[in-house]
Amino acid sequence: MGTLYQGPPDTAIHDLKVTIQESQLVFPAQETQSKSMFLSNIDQVLNFNVQTVHFFPANLEFPPKIVADRLRTALSNVLVPYDFLAGRIKLNPHSGRLEIDCNSAGAVFAVASSEFALDDIGDLVYPNPAFGQLIVEKVDAIGSDDQPLCIIQLTSFKCGGFAMGVSTNHAMLDGLSFKIFLQNLATQAFDDKPLAIVPYNDRTVLAARSPPQVTFPHPELLKLKIPIGEEPSHPTFDCPQEELAFKIFRLSSDHISYLKEKAKASGPAAAAATATTNYRITGFNVVTAHVWRCKALSCDSEEGLERLSTVLYAVDIRPRMKPPLPASYTGNAVLTAYATAKCRELEEVPFSKLVAMVSEGAARMTDEYARSAIDWGEVYKGFPHGEFLISSWWRLGFAEMEYPWGKPRYSCPVVHQRKDIILLFPDIDAANANAVNVLVALPGKEMEKFQSLFHKLLEDN
Question: What pLDDT score does 244 carry?
Answer without folding.
Answer: 84
